[in-house]
Amino acid sequence: xxxxxxxxxxxGFWGGAAHWANVIVELNKRxxxxxxxxxxxxxxxxxxxxxxxKMLRQIDGPVVLVGHSYGGAxxxxxxxxxxxxxLVYVAAFAPDAGESPGQISQEKPPAAFDNxxxxxxxxxxxxxxxxxxxxxxxxxPDEALVMAVTQKAPLGSTFGDTITAPAWRAKxxxxxxxxxxxxxxxxxxxxxxxxxxxxxxxxxxxxxASLASQPVPVTDLIEAAADEAGSG
Length: 232
Hints:
Layout: E1 6-10, H1 21-29, E2 35-38, H2 45-57, E3 63-69, H3 71-78, E4 84-92, H4 101-107, E5 116-118, E6 124-126, H5 131-135, H6 141-149, E7 173-178, H7 186-196, E8 200-204, H8 210-213, H9 215-231
Parallel strand pairs: 1-2, 1-3, 3-4, 4-7, 7-8
Antiparallel strand pairs: 5-6
Helix pairs in contact: 1-9, 2-3
């Protein structure tokens, strides 16, 4: 396992770095000892991409950059740094140049679209009583309750922020589709995966929080990317 690249995990909307908890434990069990999880402010794509770049610049050697949900847009924008060896998308947005997550969602709205509401300060929240069914229907009610209460709301304007130069056009990438996703339409995930021509795509019978409900196959995908990046 010597020589494996570092892994940097990027969360999405309505959560923080701790959403990766189960994947972190699984990666550690497999001998990955250079693990990092970005805590993004969710105030704009530019802010989040720069925060991610700052972490990437602190790491010597190759990195597998992993994004969940909106975190996929972040790694698409920030993944152009030379030490990024691979990109892994977990039920994630992978916009092209000039595209935003909001635009992609409007083209094929997700099932839980109506359960998202803004507050008076412009932050978007998933209604707490609808969080379980919307974001994490394959977790236990208690697990979903904790996610609902601790959700990290993004500024609504972030949905409209567009990608400049998508890193997936230059870097090898992997994609995981959640077939029961209610936050990003599964067909949108499949379309984004197809056009990036990933090294591998897997489909899981999972809701949006596949990183929490199915950490083993998600980690399998990250490990495959790491092994290929390390051998390269």
